[in-house]
Amino acid sequence: MVFVRPTWLRLVGLRERTGMSEKIKRGQRVPVPLLRGQYKLIVQHALADDHRFGQAVLSGGRQQIDVTLAELEDLLGCIVTAANDCHDGELEYALDALYDRLDGILYSYDEMD
Question: How many CB atoms lie within 10 A of CB 76?
Answer without folding.
Answer: 17
